[in-house]
Design goal:
heterodimer, A: 352 residues, alpha/beta, Rossmann fold, five-stranded mixed β-sheet, four-stranded parallel β-sheet, 16 helices, 10% strand, B: 463 residues, alpha+beta, Uridine Diphospho-n-acetylenolpyruvylglucosamine Reductase, domain 2, Uridine Diphospho-n-acetylenolpyruvylglucosamine Reductase, domain 3, Vanillyl-alcohol Oxidase, Chain A, domain 3, nine-stranded antiparallel β-sheet, five-stranded antiparallel β-sheet, 14 helices, globular, binds flavin-adenine dinucleotide, binds iron/sulfur cluster
Chain lengths: 352, 463
């Protein structure tokens, strides 16, 4: 079967007046719109472009493009065509091998509505309590259901194109009609990446924020307002589904959480930057992480709310050092209904 | 020669009847180890408690010309504690006292049965600023036996073989005399195993118990920093590994460097994982060391030949554990509890050739493999393990693993390596290759110390 192709509409770019994909990029200097346009057209036409080397794969231009034209997916395609390695070759090899579907997966008691843990074991810790009554056992986990969006970081659109149709098929074969995605890398894959490649969705993806919001409304009587100020940590894959961001405000509203109006939130968010460490080395990653956390401190955040377990792994112990309490969104909801935080910082104190 | 039952009675007289056995169960158990060497039963298993008891047992064995094999945990895996000619296996476990820690001169004196795990937790509890060089063997391995076989551990990159860290010995010679080696022979302090005296520790270390029984051992301790971290790098180019190891050791900032290679789990496939451990008393110290490491390896990272892996706390925990849990997990990967490795000590430049050989041999004999390399000294050499795991219930798989191991050992020797904790077959390979005058010297030493050839016979037996 031929691999699916990216549906990128050049004509949109030809007519585009904003070139936000590059103008808004936080890692390249394209404030000059003409310069941005020139460079972007080089890229579209398959010419060499500095963007291909300099791109940090932060995913943000997917959100910046006002016309839903998938500039980042195009960058990834071009990087692969030109053999540009956004990260060292062995790292890419490791990722490709590690997530290979080899028939090792876990499925629970699957119902028409199921939870996807993707390939992230942390959800096993998080998914507990009243929020998940009636769905906690209906779970899929493992390489066989892994969304594969991570290869966007590694210029391997080909791996996504090869594996994603089979993953979608695997999920369908479980009889799942509605898939609650606990990681928005999955949700973004099914609602943005797959359609961009013309892959049909035989099930309905639901963002877990929408699910949580619904459950919290059902459990409204149990909610005791938390009255806290929190910094929200937006992750790279949130850029694939920016339309879900309002749920953060909706949920915070229900829980009595103030989302501090800091510099690096919403469209201007900084990701966890750990991918930058693996791709570009420590200088950029350290700088981004420092700016991000300093910003949380500056705006008086008592908590840092995590959406993505990978952000948690890279930033939770760092925010603690600045006196900020890290907590995953699911756990935040649990706290408000009188349940305990499940995902905690491991003892990082080294064993000697 | 005294009858077996008279010998039994004499042994009972020395250690008490609870600590001697000639029963089938014990003889079965003490006939084997976890490796590939065929079993051979002892006549007796004896567990002494004191140096005096050891002396009496040795004197008895020497008089009766009964073979005597000292045993720690039996985890060397190369049959070194299998009594090739029967006789007595001397299980040292009951001599388990930690006798002294000198905080200022940074050493500990232990009895022969003290294990890695016990010393580690003792130091953590009573002397948290001190540590020893923990090997990745299961924690029941003994300190003394690990030094006897020239083991390596977490501090070997900085301080050499674990046996280089010995700071004194108390030995029962094969003829029963008790002898102190090192500073403790002229002083009450155990700070040096030799210098400035003639270093006699070489008469016992590396001899696999064929020249005497160590009853006490002084071991150097080292500063224990408050924090530790691991940086994981990966490359798919074996030929770069020696240079990367050299660059890492050049920083003089590393606690330990280990390289892993295995086809499974899948994340290991196709890349070599280079784990660089660092320690520090503060975040600043750790951060400085991280920077030194990055600077040292930057050119490989920039050329995209070397990757860095940010590891999640879940993944980091097993990498940080001491001993490494992953090593023991691999040891039973085929289920059925069979694991052995040839671990030649070799120049680090041999890494690419050794990896190639390991992959070839594993494919040829269809056995599951892995390799762990540990840097010893500032790039002076490395231990490269050709590791195979096998199911003991599968005779064919065991036979294939054995062939694979010996092919790797022979290859390592041809390539200029020296076989570590060699089994009797590998010892022979080395003795055949050895400078004949060296061999004569070894023979003379052995004859001088053990005139009746009672000590761990079969091992280091020069013709
Ligand atoms: C999973 C695994 C990982 C390992 N990793 C490492 C590692 O990282 N580093 C390392 O160095 N080793 C390693 N090993 C090898 C081995 O287990 C260790 O070296 C261990 O320290 C050996 O100690 P033992 O008490 O088991 O010795 P044993 O096997 O009991 O004895 C070894 C030798 O010492 C002699 N001996 C024992 N006690 C005395 C004594 N009192 N006087 C004189 N001679 C004596 C014995 O006769 C024998 O010849 C590993 C093994 C396994 C199974
Ligand atoms: S990708 Fe979007 S923002 Fe960029 S030029 Fe095209 S239409 Fe404009
Ligand atoms: S992915 Fe990020 S770094 Fe790359 S071009 Fe888009 S916005 Fe810029």
């Amino acid at each position: 079967m031929p691999l699916p192709e990216l549906k990128f509409d050049k004509t949109k770019c030809a007519k585009c007046k904003v070139i936000s994909c590059l103008v808004k990029c936080q890692y390249m200097d394209f404030k000059d719109k003409d310069k941005a346009k020139k460079e972007w057209h080089k890229l579209i036409n398959g010419e060499d472009s500095s963007v291909l080397e300099a791109c940090t794969t932060c995913y943000a231009c997917e959100e910046y493009c006002p016309y839903g034209n998938h500039p980042f997916y195009l960058i990834v395609e071009r990087q692969e065509e030109k053999g540009i390695l956004p990260a060292p070759r062995p790292t890419i090899t490791m990722w490709i091998n590690q997530c290979q579907p080899v028939g090792r997966f876990l499925v629970g008691k699957i119902e028409e509505r199921a939870l996807s843990y993707c390939f992230l074991p942390q959800f096993n810790t998080l998914v507990k309590g009243k929020l998940f009554d009636g769905i906690a056992l209906s779970v899929i986990f493992g390489q066989e259901f892994f969304c594969n969006a991570v290869y966007l970081h590694y210029a391997k659109a080909s791996v996504i194109k090869d594996r994603l149709p089979k993953i979608v098929e695997n999920i369908k074969n479980q009889g799942i009609k509605e898939l609650v995605c606990l990681h928005d890398e999955c949700y973004g894959t099914f609602t943005s990446l797959a359609p961009a490649y013309g892959i049909d969705m035989p099930f309905k993806p639901i963002h877990y924020y929408e699910y949580l919001y619904g459950r919290l409304k059902e459990l409204k009587d149990l909610i005791k307002p938390l009255n806290i100020k929190a910094a929200y940590q937006r992750n790279c894959s949130a850029r694939l589904c920016p339309e879900t961001d309002h749920y953060v405000d909706d949920i915070f509203g229900l829980l009595g959480v103030e989302r501090v109006k800091r510099k690096y939130d919403r469209e201007n968010a900084l990701c966890c930057a750990e991918i930058f460490r693996m791709a570009k080395g420590p200088a950029l990653a350290d700088d981004v992480q420092k700016r991000n956390i300093d910003d949380m401190v500056k705006f008086g955040a008592e908590y840092c709310i995590f959406n993505c377990p990978a952000c948690w792994d890279s930033l939770a112990h760092r925010v603690v050092k600045q006196g900020i309490k890290p907590i995953h969104m699911i756990d935040l909801c649990k706290l408000a209904i009188g349940e305990e935080q499940a995902l905690r910082l491991p003892e990082l104190a080294a064993e000697v | 020669m005294t009858t077996t039952s008279a010998l039994y009675d004499s042994l009972v007289k020395i250690v008490g009847k609870d600590f001697v056995s000639d029963q089938k169960e014990e003889r079965y158990f003490y006939a084997r180890d976890g490796g590939l060497m065929p079993p051979h039963e002892p006549d007796f298993v004896v567990m002494p408690k004191t140096t005096e008891e050891v002396q009496e047992i040795v004197k008895l064995a020497n008089k009766e010309k009964v073979p005597l094999v000292p045993k720690g945990a039996g985890l060397a895996l190369t049959g070194l504690v299998i009594p090739q000619r029967g006789g007595i296996v001397l299980d040292m476990k009951r001599m388990d006292r930690i006798l002294e820690v000198n905080e200022k001169a940074r050493y500990v004196v232990v009895e022969a049965g003290v294990t890695q795990g016990v010393l580690k937790s003792y130091l953590q509890k009573h002397h948290p600023h001190l540590r020893h060089s923990i090997p990745d063997s299961p924690p029941v391995a003994t300190i003394v036996a690990n030094a006897v076989i020239h083991g390596q551990g977490r501090l070997s990159q900085q301080h050499g073989f674990n046996s280089d860290m010995v700071s004194g010995l108390e030995v029962v010679l094969p003829t029963g005399e008790l002898c102190r080696i090192g500073s403790c022979s002229v002083s009450s302090y155990w700070f040096s195993k030799g210098p400035p005296l003639p270093d006699l520790s070489g008469l016992f270390l590396g001899w696999f118990g064929t020249t005497g029984i160590i009853t006490r051992l002084g071991l150097k301790l080292y500063p224990c920093k408050k924090m530790r971290d691991v940086m994981v790098f990966l490359t798919d180019k074996a030929e770069l590994v020696p240079d990367i190891l050299l660059k890492l050791s050049h920083t003089e900032m590393i606690e330990d460097v280990v390289v892993s290679a295995a086809p499974l789990p899948l994340r290991f496939k196709g890349t070599f994982w280079i784990m660089a451990y660092i320690t520090g008393d503060s975040d600043e110290e750790l951060e400085f060391k991280r920077k030194m490491v990055w600077d040292a390896l930057w050119k490989y990272f920039e050329s995209r030949d070397l990757g860095f892996l940010s590891v999640s706390p879940d993944m980091k925990a097993p990498l940080m554990s001491m001993p490494s849990k992953d090593t023991s997990r691999f040891a039973d990967v085929s289920k059925g509890g069979g694991f052995q490795y040839a671990g030649p000590i070799t120049p680090i430049e041999k890494f690419p050739a050794f990896i190639k050989k390991l992959e070839e041999v594993a494919a040829k004999y269809n056995v599951f493999y892995a390799s762990t390399t540990r840097l010893i000294g500032a790039g002076h050499c490395m231990m490269f393990s050709f590791s195979f795991s096998f199911n003991r219930a599968n005779a064919d798989e065991m036979a294939r693993a054995k062939k694979a191991l010996y092919e790797c050992s022979k290859f390592a020797l041809e390539e200029g390596g020296v076989l570590w904790k060699a089994d009797i077959y590998e010892q022979k390979l080395m003795m055949d290759k050895m400078d004949p005058n060296t061999l004569v010297l070894m023979k003379k030493i052995k004859q001088l110390l053990d005139p009746n050839g009672i000590m761990n016979p079969g091992n280091w037996e020069a013709k």
